[in-house]
Amino acid sequence: MIAFAGNSLLCRVALKNSTIGAASFTTIRLISGAAMLWLITGRGRSTDVGRGNWVSAGALFGYAAGFSFAYTTLPAATGALLLFGAVQVTMIGYGIRKGERLSGLQCLGLVIALCGVVGLLLPGLSAPPLLGSLIMLGAGGAWGVYSLRGKGAGDPTRVTAGNFLRAVPLAIVATALTGGAASLDPAGLWCSVFSGAVASGMGYALWYTVVPALKATTAATIQLTVPLLAALGGIIFLGETVTLRLVAASAAILGGIALVLQKRRPDEQ
Q: Which DSSP letter does residue 183 get?
């Protein structure tokens, strides 16, 4: 979870304190992540089923690009909260569409979480930039789609490696179209490499290694810590301030999702 939160911090540091552009950060992050995952999965020698596909790669690129462009204006904590909320709502919504039933308490939790998102985005002095917020919500939706498509697709680490590799040319085209390559500098370069190779590549590999040993609800609940870790990191390393609006929205979004993730009683299944 520290690695996942680290992605928010590294992206925000790079875009705030260097001249690297969002497109370039995305491209280098994906290249570095693909290289690390390629090494972790045995340098492509295995013939195991599950090496990704172009549709999932497109969703991965949509997440990575939206993530970077949103962080040109959003603080680390706000961005992580919006991203996490959008991911969870997307996956919960898909489950409901497929016929999953929620208990009354779970429905209440979903409503509370959605109200938290709306409350965070309402106009006001402490409201985050609307465009950046909408882009981050879109990035979270893309990651939710990517996660859903990855279920049952084979070895998750190998699938992720294949999708990272396929997403690279999409990112290169985006960088070329925006002229982002001209804005590279050492600080931004190293932040993007570390984000891709360590926080993304190694972080995903570690997560997929331990998640089979966890209950689904436990794994989902653990992820509630990511926005909190990002907020703490933003305060310590970026000097960001936490507003009352953000605290209230965090409590509503994370608390609401925690209620949704609660296991239903046998008579409610």
A: G
